[in-house]
Design goal:
The chain has seven helices and seven strands, in the order βαααβαβββααββα. The chain is α/β, with parallel strands linked by helices and about 220 residues long. It has a single domain, classed as Undecaprenyl pyrophosphate synthetase. It is globular, with a radius of gyration of 17 Å.
């Protein structure tokens, strides 16, 4: 049973780390861990729908991740494509953000580089695919003649709102380049368990922790 919360984040960022470590722990090849990360994503999606969370952003893979062995790269590219295609049949408004001009970006996801709405439009879901923070911020520097600019309105990920809470699975305590502008005032919660071992309790514990954070936005 989901508890009642006095305050819920309007936008949650998800860093689903630990797929490769999970696979190795299971005696499997590293690339086999990525496919195991799909079902946890849908379990979390269902929880967000039930709670009424308006927006969630999933970290798919980064520009730096594409330096991994080719077999691993193909595996996480396929996992991202499969996840988006399944969500395209659910109640969601989907947006995929990343360097879609690169050959590392899955062609199947090109239609989603502008937001597409399916079903009841009950939640915004953003996927970061072939995403790089330098690529994102570079869009704000295209007009060097500007002395000032409204950064959030200029960056490539401008259609993604400010994040209230970031949850990272896998025990590591770093953002890994995750939406630096939108994350500026985000609270950061770490789950020690690996992403394929996702449990609803992980997510609910993060929301319980969030209840007691002092949200000042610098004020």
């Amino acid at each position: 049973m989901i508890p009642k919360f006095k305050r819920l984040p309007k936008h949650i960022g998800i860093i689903p780390d630990g797929n490769r470590r999970w696979a190795v722990n299971q005696g499997l090849s590293k690339e086999s861990g990525y496919n195991r990360g799909i079902d946890p994503g849908f379990a979390l999606y269902e929880l967000c729908l039930e709670l009424g969370i308006p927006e969630v952003t999933f970290y798919g893979f980064t520009v730096d991740n594409t330096k991994r062995p080719a077999i691993q790269k193909r595996a996480f590219q396929k996992a991202c494509v499969d996840a988006v295609n399944i969500l395209a049949n659910r109640d969601a408004s989907l947006l995929v953000i990343g360097n879609h001009e690169s050959p590392q970006f899955p062609e199947e996801l090109l239609p989603y580089t502008t937001r597409k709405t399916f079903g009841g439009d009950r939640i915004k879901i953003n996927f970061l695919v072939n995403y790089g923070w330098k690529w994102d911020l570079s869009h704000a520097m295209t007009n060097k003649a500007k002395e000032t600019c409204l950064l959030h309105e200029e960056i490539a990920s401008k259609d993604i709102s400010r994040i209230d809470l970031i949850i990272r699975w896998g025990g590591r305590r770093r953002l890994s380049g995750f939406l630096p502008v939108q994350s500026i005032y985000a609270d950061f919660y770490v789950v020690e368990d690996l992403w394929p071992d996702f449990q609803a309790k992980h997510f609910l514990d993060a929301l319980s922790w969030y209840q007691n954070q002092d949200i000042t936005l610098g004020g």
